[in-house]
Amino acid sequence: MKDVPAIEGINRRKLIKATGGLAITLGLGVPALAQQGGLATTVFGGAYEREYRKNVIEPFEKETGAKVLAKLGSTSEWLTNALVNRSSPEIDLLMLPYPDSMKAVLEDIGMPLSVADIPNLRDVDPVWFDQYNKQAVALDYVGYGIAYREDLVPTPPTSWKDLWNPAYKGKVTVPDIGQWGSWELIVISALLNGGSEDNLDPAFKALKELKPHVRQFFKGGGDISNLLGSGEAWVCGMTTNIPAYGLIDAGKPVKFIFPSEGAMVGAASYHVAKNAKNAALCWKFINFALSRPIQENFCNGVVAAPTNVTAVINERTRQRVPDHGHLKLFNWAKIIPQMSDLADRWNQEVAF
């Protein structure tokens, strides 16, 4: 895995535009919660929420007696809320994925984190701390790869380049713009064709060439399950292991691979809001979540890779997450300012 540069500030207007710029309130009652010795945080839904509450929140509450209020919602809403309520945060501890995690760092929302406050940072691989300018730390990560129908593809894919295989014409699904994996798809398409984060023109030339191969641009895991499950699509590019193994575990003839060039990465990270009412409790919670036993229990439950290098995941999880050396990270700070223009260009040149 290549080193990831620390990110630098960008134009705030561009960031707000990329985030949505919508003033919102979540109505969490944070001052009262803080007075009661609790904290307000966020959590993704579905199986992630179930495993997170079971393996992180509930054990922490039992051990400390503190109340953790975890709110569902969209990550863009959480980020916008943090921007709007910067002086008096409603959310003490944000959990964010890419690209919102990097937007938060660029906007300087989080306070610096340190080993003095969070001792288990010592056991976290530096890449999961340094890339956030030490203002955040990743809890877990997954890899983006390719899922395909073993019974339908004439030749199994092994490379990102195989998405352009003429034999797959009309049978490929990839993320629609703005969906998870879409920015990664643009970047890998550029890198495969001589481009970079600074030069994404080759990506759009390649994506226009991919368009005849695309059966449908997916908008979520449900689309992937329906398209691959029915055989309407044979190959799904730029998906995490979760939808693919949902089908595999249900008995569908699906296989999931991490391409030879490397797995693009998804990670969930913690950001303690500046001016948080109970920062010390947030640090304690993060330290708990990063401890070896909690990392092992949670990551085995949700099927993700731990960021604590001492954590040992079981064989089932190990087979479904990428090896650390096979990860392919890129410089989000170069992509985020371009997102609005990239979305417009996608809709003009790539979308149906």
UniProtKB/TrEMBL annotation:
UniProt cross-references to PROSITE patterns, sorted A to Z: TAT
GO biological process: polyamine transport; thiamine transport
Gene Ontology CC: outer membrane-bounded periplasmic space
InterPro entries reported for this sequence: SBP (IPR006059), Sperm_putr-bd (IPR001188), TAT_signal (IPR006311)
GO function term, MF aspect, one: polyamine binding
Keyword annotations of the record: Periplasm, Signal
Organism superkingdom: Bacteria
PANTHER family according to UniProt: ABC TRANSPORTER SUBSTRATE-BINDING PROTEIN, THIAMINE-BINDING PERIPLASMIC PROTEIN-RELATED
UniProt name for this protein: Putative spermidine/putrescine transport system substrate-binding protein
Species of origin: Bradyrhizobium canariense
